[in-house]
Design goal:
Layout (H helix, E strand, L loop, with lengths): L9 E7 L3 E7 L32 H17 L6 E5 L10 H15 L4 E6 L7 H8 L3 E5 L5 H8 L8 H9 L6 E5 L1 E5 L2 E2 L5 H14 L3 E5 L10 E3 L2 H13 L4 E4 L1
Parallel strand pairs: 2-3, 3-4, 4-5, 5-6, 6-9, 9-11
Antiparallel strand pairs: 1-2, 7-8, 7-10
């Protein structure tokens, strides 16, 4: 099983299929994974297999490392297109998340004004007032919604909180009043003999209705790109993704598909 554990607090830059040249900001420990989900397709592997021994970076450590990297990149004439909060788990789980967002916006404005600040989140903590406020201030507030089917979520996303309620998540994303991007993984395959193909109408139709209700600024759909911890997962094909994308666009919402 091949997995990726990212450096902390800064990694990359890397080329993102959806965002361009991305400088990663990882608020989790450098030696493991902390996430409120335990997705079967996560490139960082399963939570239980990567329990960290190190602590999370502090606010000051993140700011110092980010400033040093931005100085280096601007001096080289290669500023990033985007500063992306991602890495080894759920970034909004960091206790100083709001303050770190403030620091990052200030450093972006100082060194690379054209760069966007993006957060890749599973939306589980976005209901918290301090997290919600911070996410409102970033350029790309990218929130996961793979399906609206509770059983599929328990099988594939595997939320750590047994009280996870997808209806509450939908309302939370909607509460950003359009200042959100919905990100959805479509895939095929099985886990333990259970079919996890979410590209059929029984999944796509209700998901599309939820997207219409949320009215996000944009939708990003994608499929498996890197090796997953479960080997029986498969990519969704281009034709299928294009068909889903076109249905979102027909609903009046911009949508991109990454293969």
């Amino acid at each position: 099983m091949s997995t990726v554990i990212y450096q902390s607090p800064i990694f990359g830059p890397v080329h993102s299929r959806r965002l361009g040249i991305s400088l990663g900001i990882n608020l989790m420990p450098a030696d493991g994974k902390i996430c409120t989900f335990d997705c079967i397709y996560c490139e960082c592997g399963f939570n239980a297999d990567h329990k960290p021994r190190l602590r999370r970076p502090t606010r000051d450590e993140v700011a110092e490392a980010l400033e040093n990297k931005l100085k280096e990149m601007t001096a080289d004439g290669t500023p990033p297109d985007v500063l992306t909060f991602a890495g080894n788990g759920e970034p909004t789980a960091h206790p100083e998340f709001g303050s770190i967002i403030s620091d990052t916006i200030s450093l972006r404005d100082k060194y690379c004004k054209e760069a966007k600040v993006s957060v890749l989140s599973n939306a589980t903590l976005a209901i918290r007032p301090e997290v919600h406020e911070a996410l409102r201030r970033v350029d790309n507030n990218i929130l996961k919604l793979d399906t609206v089917n509770p059983q599929y979520i328990r099988t594939v996303n595997r939320p750590g909180n047994p009280a996870y309620d997808v209806k509450e998540i939908i309302e939370t994303i909607r509460s950003f009043d359009g200042n959100a991007i919905v990100q959805t993984m479509f895939m095929r395959g099985t886990i333990g003999g259970t079919d996890v193909d979410n590209t059929g109408e029984e999944y796509v139709g209700p998901w599309l209705e939820a997207v219409k209700y949320i009215r996000p600024r944009q939708v990003m759909i994608y499929t498996i790109d890197r090796e997953t911890p479960d080997r029986d997962l498969l990519k969704a094909d281009r034709e299928t993704l294009d068909g889903i994308r076109d249905r979102v666009i027909a609903a009046g919402i911009p949508c991109s598909a990454s293969y």
